[in-house]
């Protein structure tokens, strides 16, 4: 019997974590304020109450300690899920992620698995102070041995977090914090159904004029731009990458061969970024199909600005539509 529930991204993550903990007693949750408080965004709300302090652990303010402990727990057969409170706090744990978490499976020729998930609320749009609105996903996508995922909707949040937890490889799970509790993004989910595979790119809107590829919080921007472009007689195909490493660019290549144009969209700065990689790979694979250069719409190559300026920093509908016009004018 199906159990349909209409969920926000935040609630979908909460229920996905709950289901994973119910199915496997080796799943643990750990992080700053994840227990009694339920996390600053309330994603782990109620889990410590129901599963106890031995499985939902409030940790000290020490990201290197959180991730280092998770590595040790994974060696002993547990499946730890670490929450990094804000993406800008992840860097004290960068050494543990890059030197231990990403390497142990390879170093031991597969004898030691690292089923660790690191949940990372990321991106801007919440009017926060420094170190609370960044997009560091490209740094981790560059490290071999890590799987990097970014969800954009409630369906992928619910199934994606469970699939990440079941993975024997370490997964960095980037979550668009400004969309956690958006009522407009509520989706109906059969929480007892059979999951679709989340770790692949997906065409979320079909079109013929140009392709827009995005991930995380930028997918909503791309879909809003596609709706606005339709009023102008332009048909934009929108692709949600979902997995940032390894990149699944097959659907992107197929789309570009059809439309001849690509706009790569992301909140992150443009220099040495995922949009750079997408542009390079599409140029390599689809050179003779392109009717215009690949264009990128991104954040600026500056530190994330104060809250008063973030609306000018973040890529929006108008910047996407301007890029489409530039591509069509080529």
Automatic annotation (TrEMBL):
Name the CDD domains for this protein.
TPP_PYR_E1-PDHc-beta_like
Required co-factor(s) are: thiamine diphosphate
InterPro entries linked to this entry: THDP-binding (IPR029061), Transketo_C/PFOR_II (IPR009014), Transketolase-like_Pyr-bd (IPR005475), Transketolase_C (IPR033248)
Q: Output this protein's name.
A: Alpha-ketoacid dehydrogenase subunit beta
Residue ranges of domain Transketolase-like pyrimidine-binding in the record: 7-182
Entry's PANTHER family? PYRUVATE DEHYDROGENASE E1 COMPONENT BETA SUBUNIT, PYRUVATE DEHYDROGENASE E1 COMPONENT SUBUNIT BETA
Q: Which Pfam families match?
A: Transket_pyr, Transketolase_C
Its EC number is 1.2.4.-
State the source organism's domain of life.
Answer: Bacteria
Q: Which UniProt keywords apply?
A: Oxidoreductase, Thiamine pyrophosphate
Extract one GO molecular function annotation from the record: oxidoreductase activity
Which organism's genome codes for this protein?
Amycolatopsis plumensis
Q: Does the keyword Oxidoreductase apply?
A: yes
């Amino acid at each position: 019997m199906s159990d349909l529930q209409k969920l926000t991204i935040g609630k979908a993550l909460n229920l996905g974590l709950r289901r994973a903990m119910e199915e496997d007693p080796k799943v643990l949750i750990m992080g700053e304020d994840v227990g009694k408080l339920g996390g600053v965004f309330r994603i782990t709300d109620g889990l410590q109450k129901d599963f106890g302090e031995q499985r939902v652990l409030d940790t000290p303010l020490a990201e290197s300690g959180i991730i280092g402990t998770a590595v040790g727990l994974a060696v002993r057969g547990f499946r730890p899920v670490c929450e990094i409170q804000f993406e800008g706090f992840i860097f004290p744990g960068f050494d543990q992620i890059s030197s231990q978490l990403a390497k142990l499976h390879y170093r031991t020729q597969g004898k030691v698995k690292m089923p660790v998930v690191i949940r990372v609320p990321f991106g801007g749009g919440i009017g926060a102070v420094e170190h609370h609105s960044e997009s560091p996903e490209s740094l981790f996508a560059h490290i071999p041995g890590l799987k990097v995922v970014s969800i954009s909707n409630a369906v992928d949040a619910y199934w994606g977090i469970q699939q990440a937890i079941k993975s024997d490889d370490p997964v960095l799970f980037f979550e668009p914090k400004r969309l956690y509790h958006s009522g407009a993004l509520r989706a109906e989910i059969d929480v007892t159904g059979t999951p679709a595979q989340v770790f692949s790119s997906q065409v979320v809107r079909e079109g013929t004029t140009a392709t827009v590829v995005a991930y995380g919080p930028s997918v909503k921007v791309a879909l809003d731009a596609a709706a606005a472009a339709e009023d102008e007689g332009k048909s934009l195909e929108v692709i949600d990458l979902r997995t940032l490493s390894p990149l699944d660019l097959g659907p992107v290549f197929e789309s570009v061969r059809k439309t001849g144009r690509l706009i790569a969209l992301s909140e992150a700065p443009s220099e040495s970024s995922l949009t750079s990689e997408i542009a390079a790979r599409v140029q390599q694979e689809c050179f003779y199909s392109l009717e215009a250069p690949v264009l990128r719409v991104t954040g600026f190559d500056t530190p994330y600005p104060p809250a008063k300026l973030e609306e000018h920093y973040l890529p929006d509908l108008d910047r996407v539509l301007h890029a489409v016009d530039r591509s069509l004018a080529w």
